[in-house]
Design goal:
Glutamine Phosphoribosylpyrophosphate, subunit 1, domain 1, alpha/beta, 8-stranded antiparallel β-sheet, binds 2-deoxy-2-amino glucitol-6-phosphate, 3 domains, Rossmann fold, 614 residues, 36% helix, 7-stranded antiparallel β-sheet
Length: 614
């Protein structure tokens, strides 16, 4: 779960690598390093951010060269320090490598290399890999490409690598298994990135490597693509990217997270494009249309995911059971994969993932597939591994999400899941026509309704001022709002480091109520309909114990307004839609609290955007 970049061509490489790494910092940001070659290799590495790395380049001479590789790290093996940072260099000093992934059998390879006299500076698996490549290259007297090929045949684990050999500076060798790798094709120049963002401003022609593929990029001979398992030459498939560079820029906002929160009306429009055309036309999700027989005969639906995407799955359980009358289970992918779960013929497994790369979700998919489940994936990143590993599925089309805390991707997931439930329920005849029509009518205008919610941001910012010193928060919700309470708590803790827990409101009296005193802020999601009157009783219980209440209520509410310390109103709507709206003020509340506390909102400590390790 790191970011890798590379360039080989005729432009000065330094800026390309540094700017590229900055775009990939969302993938990991505890240390960074680059290697540039100009007659000799210059390697600089630093603990901390790419900006810390930049400050090491005080000498113009060091910035020279038009070939190089770079890395921004999320530590797996060994602490984040200068020595463990990439690029790692072989014992001869000739070969350098950047690696995103984990080499699981690095211990056994290392002991063989130690016996041969190799020495290791770092604690990393990647330093073992670069020396394995060197050992093979030197003992078999072969070129770098072949040596990488033989080394990868020995390796167990996951990788996206870029390897450079100073004895042949016209070439970079790349390979992929598990972790993503994109190659940008320019005019007599090539770019490498964990995603295309480092090279989008230069070229939109891109090759995504598939698992078990390697590309030997040679300035004179061009690009050669090989399949590692079969040892065969492949024809590269060059995609014309549609991404916009603006998507990966902050566009005037202080942080990506804030930009992404405000993008949500547009993102949901993009999610619905071509699927929900108007309130009077039928929903059209082609993968559901095509595989409707599977949903018709499904005995059970199992959602698998992690983190925020798991919260989307939890809300989907409420939606699907209510509207489809099919039993639903929601599983943490990390638990599911190790549990030997019972999967029967006719079960549909629906993995949900923003990145499409999450290692636990991917492993759970592979296991469910082996057990014969039908896999219907919900992903945001187009062409991601999870999208490719599932039988079919649907993209959320939320656009690039750079902030580590997921916001717009979650809103698009839950909007899409509701749309799917309505579509399948209508086809199955398990939803009343009048209800279907009512919800569709509201869903069709949800982008406008969200604009209204976002227009309350100043008020939410003012509310946030009261809680900068809070040590704990509780989030309570019932029914459809329970998953939103969990998501609100996760958002707050991941970016502000304030401890926060989400609970079903009625569970409060079974334990958490003991925590309530004057210093405890409690966010209560108390929108009209559903369990409103029950929530009023919970609010009274909190009030009696002196807790500070921040209530998310429907416009026009009078009852809770009288009891709460702070009130944030959202428009009245159907209870199926209310969670999509209620989530927005919680995102903003977390953002403002974290930002005012001086936390790094886009890159919270210890986290990374996509978790490609167990
Ligand atoms: C969200 O704010 C988190 N950073 C995290 O929980 C995330 O949702 C989780 O890692 C799953 O990622 P995915 O959706 O890319 O699979």
């Amino acid at each position: 779960m790191c970011g890798i970049v590379g360039y080989i061509g005729n432009k000065p490489v330094y800026d390309i690598l540094i700017n590229g790494l900055k775009k990939l910092e969302y993938r990991g940001y505890d240390s960074a390093g680059i290697m540039l070659y100009d007659k000799t290799s210059v390697i600089k590495k630093s603990k901390g951010k790419v900006a810390d790395l930049e400050s090491l380049f005080t000498n113009k001479e060091d910035k020279k060269g038009s070939v190089g590789i770079g890395h921004t790290r999320w530590a797996t093996h060994g602490p984040p320090n200068q020595i463990n940072s990439h690029p790692h260099v072989s014992n001869s000093g000739e070969i350098s490598l950047v690696h995103n992934g984990i080499i699981e059998n690095y211990h056994s390879i290392k002991s063989v290399l130690l016996k041969k006299g190799y020495v290791f500076e770092s604690d990393t698996d990647s330093e073992v890999l670069v020396n394995l490549i060197e050992d093979i290259k030197k003992s078999k007297k072969i070129k770098l490409g072949k040596a990488v090929y033989y080394a990868l045949k020995q390796v167990v684990g996951a990788y996206a690598i870029a390897v450079f050999d100073s004895t042949n500076p016209n070439e970079i060798v790349t390979a992929k298994l598990g972790s993503p790798l994109a190659i940008g094709i320019g005019k007599s120049e090539y770019y490498i990135g964990s995603d295309p963002s480092p090279f989008l401003e230069f070229t939109k022609r891109c090759i995504y490597l598939n698992d078990h593929e390697m590309a030997i990029i040679n300035l004179k001979k061009g690009l050669t693509l090989r399949e590692i398992k079969e040892d065969s030459i492949l024809d590269p498939f060059i995609e014309e990217l549609e991404h916009d560079i603006e998507e990966v820029e902050k566009g005037g906002y202080d942080h990506f997270m804030l930009k992404e929160i405000f993008e949500q009306p547009q993102s949901i429009k993009d999610t619905f494009r071509g699927r929900l055309i108007s309130a009077s036309t039928p929903i059209k999700i082609s993968s559901i249309e095509k595989h409707f027989d599977k949903f018709k005969s499904a005995k059970r639906i199992i959602f698998i995911s992690c983190g925020t995407s798991w919260h989307a799955g939890l809300l989907a359980e409420y939606y699907f059971e209510e509207l489809l009358r099919i039993p639903v289970e929601v599983e943490y992918a990390s638990e599911f994969r190790y549990r030997n779960p019972i999967i029967n013929k006719g079960d549909i497994v629906i993995p949900i993932s923003q990145s499409g790369e999450t290692a636990d979700t991917l492993a759970a998919i592979k296991m469910a597939k082996e057990k014969g489940a039908f896999l219907y994936g919900i992903c945001n990143v187009v062409g991601s591994t999870i999208a490719r590993e599932t039988h079919t599925g649907v993209y959320t089309h939320a656009g690039s999400e750079i902030g580590v805390a997921s916001t717009k991707a979650f809103s698009c997931q839950i909007s899409l899941l509701l749309l799917m439930a309505l579509d399948i329920g209508k086809r199955l005849g398990t939803i009343e026509e009048s209800r279907y029509k009512r919800v569709i009518k509201e869903l069709a205008i949800i982008p406008q309704i969200l604009e209204k919610v976002l227009s309350k941001s100043k008020h939410i910012e003012n509310v946030s001022e009261n809680f900068l010193d809070a040590a704990n928060f509780l989030y309570l919700g019932r029914g459809y709002q329970f998953p939103i309470a969990l998501e609100g708590a996760l958002k707050l803790k991941e970016i502000s480091y304030i401890h926060a827990e989400g609970y079903p409101a009625a569970e409060m009296k079974h334990g958490p109520i003991a925590l309530i005193d004057e210093s405890m802020p409690i966010v209560v999601i108390a929108t009209k309909k559903g369990h409103y009157h029950k929530i009023v009783s919970n609010v009274l219980e909190i009030k009696a114990r002196g807790g500070q209440i921040i209530a998310i209520v429907s416009e026009g509410d009078t009852e809770i307004k009288k009891l709460a310390d702070h009130v944030i109103e959202i428009p009245n709507c159907d209870e199926l839609i209310a969670p999509i709206l209620a989530n927005i003020p919680l995102q903003l509340l977390s953002y403002y609290i974290a930002n005012k506390k001086g936390c790094n909102v886009d890159q919270p400590r210890n986290l990374a955007k996509s978790v490609t390790v167990e």
